[in-house]
Amino acid sequence: xxxxEFSPQHRELxxxxxxFTRRSAKRxxxxxxxWGDLFVDAYxxxxxxxxxxxxAASFVLALRNEIAQRASTANSxxxxxxxxxxxxxxxxxxxxxxxxxxxxxxxxxxPMTVNGAExxxxxxxxxxxxxxxxxxFARKVALTAAGSGVIYLPFSMVTAVDRAPMEHVFASLxxxxxxxxxxxxxGIQQLALLGPRLGKAIATAxxxxxxxxxxxxxxxxxxxxxxxxxVALFAVVAPRAGHVKGDELVRGGAVAGHAGASLFMMDxxxxxxxxxxxxxxxxxxxxxxxxAQPARGPLWALxxxxxxxxxxxxxxxxxxxxxxxxxxxxxxxxxxxxxFAQLAVIVIAGCATASGLGSVARKTALVPELDALLPLHxxxxxxxxxxxxxxxxxxxxxxxxxLLVLLGAANPWLIGVxxxxxxxxxxxxxxxxxxxxxxxxxxxxxxxxxxxxRAQLGSLMRGLDVTVLAMVPLLLALYLGYVPASxxxxxxxxxxxxFLVVVLTRPxxx
Length: 510
What we know:
InterPro entries: DUF6297. The chain has 22 helices and two strands. By secondary structure, the chain is mostly helical. It has two domains: 86-264, no CATH class; 285-504, no CATH class. It starts with 7 loop residues before the first helix and ends in a 6-residue tail after the last helix.
């Protein structure tokens, strides 16, 4: 058996292997591209990014002025607030949630990884792995810190209109360093320096502390403190980067490669499969009693199998609960946010929750030939696939609508409208899972933002379109502040129509 040596000679050998691989890859890429293609690509990207940044800056400034001039509750879908949430608590919670997302993504994607070719020819060498995995890890930390700081700047400008320009800069630097800490903590968990539960607890506590510091930008000390902590954590991880297990490096590289290729190909289903494929917890206890019941015909057997699969895949309860909390917190914030912002958060929460409940449909959509072998009409098969997402989304929307009724957003009929809307939103999960791959033979459309792949965007929006459409009557009721009787009928007809269209439409295959 080969053993790795950590002497300076072997470390230099590993560095030479890495440099040789990088030079060969760059030489190969240069041989397949021309200066003209590079100039056109650079011009298109620069033009698109410039226009997008201009539009984004205009939107941020307009939203900033809207929030600065808002009345206490004049522009809220809740006419009389009986509970007020301080703004600082809400924005700190949002900052903490974003840091948790960064940390979880970093843990799923590595953060120290090797791709398929590197795992074949690097990991088999009996040399120190640190020169192989440390430079990419350092780049990830630096890019995460820079990206987090840039993204937090407009967030700070919108949520804290009374800050001076330098205070916004200090807050952005603090959040950027906090993003680097999230990636470094993911590296510590990957190295198994702490136990799984202890590592998660310490990482959560550290990120919670970091989420409070951007709210105190009056001096540069919070930014300096978080920056020193980020450097210290990186100094802990860097010397031990070569001790990451080979299977962990390969796992992270496979997930990162799968997710990156899916993003490049604009396939959101594959992105979700890549990020959710490493979940190992499967619970059979939830479905044991239901599975033990005798089947009464092929349709009932298929429905039972889909229900059991839905329960065994163990859909996490934390994200739907957090989205419920976000929808209510955005309504209770002190001073009141603009009405369109509150409705937008509800739409985003509904779409995100519906997407998380479509794991069974996405897995079965990988091999549609198996559904064709069932002794059932294809519409009945798709009905069985849609049953559990529709019931789950109807329950989630009923809970959300009930909370909104308690807050005074509308009369109790809103609960029925929400439950009916959940049926249409659940049907949208099947439509999204069975979307066709993007057609890359269709040429892009030239716009002021640069070339836009219209056909590919149309494929990407499949499923999301009916999910948003099913929420329109609910959003209208929230905007009006009451639920007319006709709106209940419209919601029922719309949800039933969406459900029938989804189950009766045969998915197209390229």
